[in-house]
Amino acid sequence: MSSDDRTGGMVDVADKPDTLRTATAKAVVKASPPTLALVEKGRIPKGNVLDAARIAATMGAKRTWDLLPYCHPVPIDSVQVGFAVQEKAIEITVEVKSIWKTGVEMEALTGATIAALTIYDMLKPVDKALAIESILLVQKSGGIKRTVAPGLNLSAAVLVASDSRKKADDRSGKIIIDRLARNGFKVTSYRIMPDNISKIGTELRMLCDKLHVDLVVTTGGTGASSRDVTPEATRSVLDKELAGVSETLRAYGQKRTLTSMLSRGVAGIRGKTVIVNLPGSPRAVSESLDALFPGILHVFGMLDGQGHEDQGR
């Protein structure tokens, strides 16, 4: 009898953006006052306990993925280890930082654990009452909260630029609609238009100036062919460009699809409406949306009069 169990395993973080992640863990090793006095004087037979524990904590944090089977090999940017020798215990604090796709709480906890075990190992010849009292996560931060700015009811429009596509076979536009809904937007307009600079520009003006939607997402017409005119139509209506948005979309896509560099999509603001050009293929659209959300949500609070601090930055 055989079984095929494919559940579990490492979490897929390939679509997550890199962000600054931090975590702090704490461990407490109980020991007798005479033992702790020896620690402070550096008279433990095995050597300097705190120096060894600091090295051990750093090594443990850096090698967490070797010890825990489902942990990712996270690139560690910083490991800071601190000790407080108290009356009846040594308190260990380990802070880990990384700019990556997933958190570093396990790295901080592993560092604190290995430091505690190192202290235990070095003190056990002189103290039979040793105990690792606790190991706990104190703090973690980073990542991206996928929530809309509070108090905002956001609307959106989806514009597909294509000479031949119909709604029945349009996958890209439907992917956008689904993702907008999951990020708190009410989609009030969904149209497919030919690759015509005048018609696209007219539609964008109507969506911004008459319907006053908060976000317009276009798909298609961002390539290098003579019929690809969506960026030109978009630039003709913008009050200001958000170059960082389009740069981020291309940089994110380039790590996954080598031809992302050929996309000419732009992003910007007209009035209080944000316009973002996405490529035409379903895969490129999905990747671009992974990069776009939730970071783009911050701009709507700013356009509504909120400052950076008001939105939790």
Q: Keywords for this structure?
A:
single chain; 313 residues; alpha/beta; Alpha-Beta Plaits; Molybdenum Cofactor Biosythetic Enzyme, Chain A; 2 domains; 4-stranded antiparallel β-sheet; 10 strands; elongated
Please explain how this structure is put together.
There is one protein chain. By secondary structure, this protein is α/β, with parallel strands linked by helices. The chain folds into 2 domains: 19-142, Alpha-Beta Plaits; 154-311, MoaB/Mog-like domain (Molybdenum Cofactor Biosythetic Enzyme, Chain A), CATH 3.40.980.10. 34% of the residues lie in helices and 25% in strands. Strands 6-5-7-10-9-8 form a 6-stranded mixed β-sheet, sandwiched between helices. Strand 9 (267-270) and strand 10 (273-278) form a beta hairpin. Helix 2 packs antiparallel against helix 4 and helix 5 (172-182) runs parallel beside helix 9. The termini are far apart. The relative contact order is 0.12.
Structural domain tally: 2
> In what order do the strands lie side by side in the largest sheet?
6-5-7-10-9-8
First-residue to last-residue Cα separation: 56 Å
Note the overall shape. elongated
Separate helix tally: 10
| Estimated structural class | alpha/beta
Please name the CATH topology of the largest domain.
Molybdenum Cofactor Biosythetic Enzyme, Chain A
Strand fraction equals 15-25%
CATH class of the largest domain: Alpha Beta
Run of helices and strands: EHHHEEHEEHEHEHEHEEHH
The CATH homologous superfamily name of the largest domain equals MoaB/Mog-like domain
Indicate the CATH architecture of the largest domain. 3-Layer(aba) Sandwich
Low-confidence stretches: none
Mean residue pLDDT: 91
User: How many whole angstroms does the radius of gyration measure?
Assistant: 27 Å
Helix content percent band: 25-40%
> How many strands, what sense, and barrel or not for the largest sheet?
6 strands, mixed
Task: Tell me how many strands there are.
Answer: 10
